[in-house]
Amino acid sequence: MARRRQSVTIKHVAADAGVSLQTVSRVINNEPNVRPAMKERVQASIDKLGYTPSIAAQRMSGSRSYLIMALNDRERTIADWRERRGTDWVDQMLLGGMLTCAEHGYRMIVELIDTHSDHVERELSAALMALQPDGVVLTPPHSENALITGLLADRGIPFARIGSIAPGPGFALTMGDARNAFDATRRLIELGHTRIGMIAGPDAYSLSAWRVEGWRQALSEAGLPHEGLCAAGDFGFESGSDAARTLLTQDDPPTAIVASSDQMALATLDVARELGLSVPRDLSVVSFDNTPIVRFTDPPLTAVDQPIAETISRAVELIIRSRSDAAPDAVIDVEGSLVERGSTAPAPHLKGVKRA
Amino acid sequence: MARRRQSVTIKHVAADAGVSLQTVSRVINNEPNVRPAMKERVQASIDKLGYTPSIAAQRMSGSRSYLIMALNDRERTIADWRERRGTDWVDQMLLGGMLTCAEHGYRMIVELIDTHSDHVERELSAALMALQPDGVVLTPPHSENALITGLLADRGIPFARIGSIAPGPGFALTMGDARNAFDATRRLIELGHTRIGMIAGPDAYSLSAWRVEGWRQALSEAGLPHEGLCAAGDFGFESGSDAARTLLTQDDPPTAIVASSDQMALATLDVARELGLSVPRDLSVVSFDNTPIVRFTDPPLTAVDQPIAETISRAVELIIRSRSDAAPDAVIDVEGSLVERGSTAPAPHLKGVKRA
DNA sequence: TAGTGCCTTGTGAACGCTAACAATGACAGG
DNA sequence: CCTGTCATTGTTAGCGTTCACAAGGCACTA
């Protein structure tokens, strides 16, 4: 009820140390021209009174807000929540991003915005005004949204596009999706598979396209077919079931499937079981993301490890550092890897497996 | 580089509408005494210019910050991240809390603080000053920390204690841990189990104690023993393995185990496999939390559904509403439930199962 | 008609902090 | 000894918003 003002302000510190406000401000911000003795005296007062600057006031006077805004797709986030899916992105983002922010004295705040909405610009603008972040991390599919990147570039706010390979304004951080899909497919080919299916992600995500591209290229190089072997989902479990069913119930079904997300791979395991196929004996499955869940499935999933947390962490560092350096837009490639578990095996010798 | 001031401020709106700043402010805050015609005119200017208030400035002048701070245990969060565990709390909190905040025009920001540190007060104080949140959500084990609750109560900041049943300052929101543990144990007894083990959480969490209490009470009521059947972990996978091993390698091992977290239940499945025990034939397992992962294990886990997201959501609503109403401290009980899956079955008929 | 009160709008001051500039002092070079 | 330069500190104004209060308008009453 009682509107409580800031308990200890810079004014109190200044009074206690017997100096001007500005001097205290200088100490707080570690500015160069302060005599060591003075600095020490002020610091003592700060410690004594337990003073911490208010970022609201700092931001007001044109300084940093020490806030990095992570922009996430609202639709997808809500869907994840409703269906009680694991939230691969959100938690990785938070953990990787928040901890890195904290290391540098920053904070991360997650903001949800609909990508497909007509109000993207409006909403983003509002969020920027309200929070005054020093930088923004864009996750797919926002990373590809020209309205968003344009607005941020216009305002001169440093930002990073996660999972986007296209050069352009801001930092682009890719996790090598094409290469990872290529390697995973290549591995399946080495295991003797000749019909290898792909469950792609939604079109709005350019990384979906890159994964499909890697898969297709590996097949081409080996002279294997890809026609009719690709079905698309939305990264979620349900859509994965549909896609897997489509692929596995066709005339000459694949003996291996690369799924563009862990959830869709889980769905593939379910569908396989339903069709009487044993994994990995009759069907090999490789998933993308390698979120914690895949270690505990039956069988544990061979997965492409997409180092999401590390990528976000890198993004945050780039943004924070870009304040001091002149910010050169750059494309950063974070290395992924294939983690082999129990869901992949040599191709079945008996061709044309019958289903239940 | 160029220090960019707020693009559209209240001043621009006032000029555009030809009124004073205060009038615009009144419209923004939906204050009563504004003539409809006036309100409409100002609103038109706001829409036209795409104006959004800066929360920094709002907070500066003593108004709300529209920020709710969620306080999480830093140690545990970092551990979750390092071990690539699923983050049951963080993502549920975010999803439940953030969405509810958004509905009311608020934002949620997650702040990590070490509970065991000597600097709790210091860190919390700093966070409060920096962010000026309108309310705070405390998750275990912070919910039990008198230093934290005391400080918040002193400052008159509304806050909620998640997973704490003790009355005291702030809202207490419990998920009925004791009752849920009781029900789960009761169910195992109905299935004919007579030796039922418990893998408890760490002492710092009072909900650990409540779960143990529920388990013990169910056993007592049925005249079953509990001595030597409880081992403690830290909610994480590794500690769960140790605890499960301790319970299952004793002379007269339990035929059913209630684990205080999904991760520890997963570990129990692993240890059972390692010892040559088949779940649920030789051993029934019930877990706590019901995070998404438990649907996909082998076998799928019977789990106590702790409605974390809903609880956080309730907490946020209480906090937001407490601004207007006089805030009566209250204890809210959110109903949990038992979700039966494949990891529970009637007690094995052959007693004294030998292990490999 | 003047007085009373409410409803509506406007006016300064303040919130906590920093940028820009001014002022002070020390020290070196001429 | 004077002057210029640099390092250090202080002073003023302003960031965008709301609070407390003042002022004006109108309707109704006496």
The mean pLDDT of chain A is 87
Count of β-strands of chain A: 12
Which two chains form the greatest contact, residue counts included?
A: A-B, 60 and 61 residues
**Number of DSSP helical runs of chain A:** 13
Number of domains of chain A: 3
Spatial gap, N to C terminus of chain A: 68 Å
CATH class of the largest domain in chain A: Alpha Beta
Major pleated sheet of chain A: 6 strands, parallel
Helix content of chain A: 40-55%
The side-by-side strand order for the widest beta sheet of chain A comes to: 2-1-3-4-5-11
Q: Would you tell me which CATH topology of the largest domain in chain A applies? A: Rossmann fold
Strand percentage of chain A lies at: 15-25%
Rg calculated over all Cα atoms of chain A? 25 Å
The run of helices and strands of chain A is: HHHHEHHEHEHEEHEHEHEHEEHEE
What is the second-level CATH architecture of the largest domain in chain A? 3-Layer(aba) Sandwich
Structural class of chain A: alpha/beta
How would you sum up this structure in a few lines?
Two copies of one chain form a homodimer. In chain A, 43% of the residues lie in helices and 15% in strands.
